[in-house]
């Protein structure tokens, strides 16, 4: 089946013209389920040859207006796609130092970065662990521990002493 696809619907679905004493009528019928939707508005063509002369309206001059639309697409760098929701913050208890704190994601040199802090309010030492107890930043004994995570290829990573670890959860615990 031959069909015609357009970016917008046809404003006139039939066309009549004379040729050597014959009148040819072409009608365009919308297609519903035979062509993929991303092809726009599609129509089947039905051609009829009529032996009698059908009066045809004179062709009037038309004006064509062309509109240009510019679409700007911004693609984020892979290091800018991380969100705070990719990290599970686990409370290691009920004390204020047991709750990981953050000021949210910031952008540094075009890449996402987040700093997480475990801070004791009563002077006790705190410990920060990553990914359900798989270690954390080493800072000795202190009442405040912070870790800065950088977004790398869409995942949060922590680097210390030449070791890089992908972080999915952070827990604070007081000693």
From TrEMBL:
PANTHER family: C6 DOMAIN-CONTAINING PROTEIN (PTHR21629)
A Pfam family assignment: C6
UniProt domain C6: residue ranges: 79-172
Organism in which the protein naturally occurs: Acrobeloides nanus
Official protein name in the record: C6 domain-containing protein
Superkingdom of origin: Eukaryota
């Amino acid at each position: 089946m031959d069909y015609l696809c357009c970016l917008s619907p046809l404003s006139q679905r039939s066309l009549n013209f004379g040729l050597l004493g014959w009148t040819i009528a072409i009608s365009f019928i919308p297609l519903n389920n035979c062509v993929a939707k991303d092809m726009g508005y599609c129509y089947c063509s039905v051609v009829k040859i009529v032996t009698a002369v059908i009066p045809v309206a004179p062709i009037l001059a038309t004006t064509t207006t062309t509109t240009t639309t510019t679409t700007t697409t911004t693609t984020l760098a892979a290091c800018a796609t991380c969100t705070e929701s990719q990290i599970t913050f686990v409370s290691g208890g009920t004390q204020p130092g047991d709750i990981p704190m953050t000021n949210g994601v910031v952008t540094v040199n075009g890449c996402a970065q987040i700093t997480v802090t475990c801070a004791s309010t009563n002077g006790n030492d705190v410990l920060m662990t990553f990914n359900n107890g798989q270690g954390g930043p080493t800072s000795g004994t202190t009442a405040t521990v912070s870790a800065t995570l950088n977004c790398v290829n869409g995942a949060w990573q922590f680097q210390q002493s030449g070791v890089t670890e992908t972080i999915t959860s952070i827990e604070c615990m007081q000693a």
